[in-house]
Write a structure and sequence with these properties.
A hairpin with a 2-residue loop joins strand 1 and strand 2. The chain is an alpha/beta fold and about 260 residues long. Helices cover about 50% and strands about 15% of the residues. Helix 3 packs parallel to helix 4. The protein is globular, with a radius of gyration of 18 Å. The chain has one domain: 2-enoyl-CoA Hydratase, Chain A, domain 1 (Alpha-Beta Complex), CATH 3.90.226.10.
């Protein structure tokens, strides 16, 4: 495991996963994604853990997303990142323990997705130039995969999700407050302390209540979520084929409607 880049510890009943790559804007590589997934599963299976906190090091970026240098011009590595990104986000949504994300700086791409996948989002109180979320996939020629079409739709609704994706808009904390996205907001110099205090409070609640409530909400949408991730992957496999004609695209989309609706 890349122990220096993804750190893990359990404090009281809280499992803490820390992204530690501030010199690269906390962007994540395939090996880091594997570590995050392994630690999330480990936390979910640990009887001493009642909730999970995901955070990162440094003030400027929560995470700039996937490491684009790793995947550029490398289809095999891109496939691995897509598979691992889906595993992380889908597992967070469906696991039995609540997940908290602490967002102290800019979140882009995967940084947004892991935030949206989480159950509780705690933001630092900062102006737009210091903290925003952004989904730039279409503008960097990356297909909106690993939950990029699913989770914003669930979290924000269709209108706002499309707004973010089609315009490459940077949504500020105030924008997100207007759609009730942040769970809690703390001053930057207090966010780490206050988030951990909240996580410990949550972790001390009745574990049977916590786990069954989170699991109930997952069960209510599990089949739908799994199908939507499959739809993303099927559409991505076609979208990256530059040889498809408009007629072939039309036929493909018609088949997707039949299969998924």
């Amino acid at each position: 495991m890349s122990e220096d880049l993804i750190q893990y510890k359990v404090e009281e009943k809280v499992a803490i996963i820390t992204i530690n790559r501030p010199d690269k804007a906390n962007s994540v590589t395939s090996s880091m994604l594997q570590d995050i997934y392994d630690y999330i599963v480990k936390s979910d299976e640990n009887e001493a853990v009642n909730c999970v906190l995901v955070r990162s090091v440094g003030d400027r970026f929560f995470s700039a997303g996937y490491d684009l240098k790793e995947v550029k011009g490398n289809p095999e590595k891109s496939k691995i990142v897509a598979e691992l990104g889906r595993k992380v986000n889908e597992y967070i949504m469906l696991m039995k323990k609540p997940v908290i994300t602490q967002i102290q700086g800019i979140a882009v791409g995967f940084g947004v997705l892991i935030t949206v996948a989480s159950d509780i989002r705690i933001f630092a109180d900062r102006p737009k130039e210091e903290l925003f979320i952004q989904l730039p996939e279409l503008y960097i020629s990356a297909f909106p995969q690993t939950g990029a079409s699913i989770m914003p739709l669930l979290a924000f609704g269709a209108t706002y999700a499309k707004n973010l994706m089609f315009t490459n808009k940077r949504a500020s904390l105030e924008d997100l407050k207007n759609i009730n996205f942040p769970s809690l907001v703390f001053p930057l110099d207090k966010i780490e302390e206050e988030t951990l205090n909240y996580a410990k409070q949550l972790g001390n609640l009745n574990s049977a209540f916590l786990f069954t409530y989170k699991s109930m909400t997952a069960m209510m949408s599990k089949e739908q979520i799994g199908k939507w991730f499959d739809l993303e992957d099927e559409c991505a496999s076609l979208a990256y084929d530059p040889k498809k004609s408009m007629k072939e695209l039309d036929d493909f989309i018609k088949n997707m409607y039949k299969k998924y609706t």
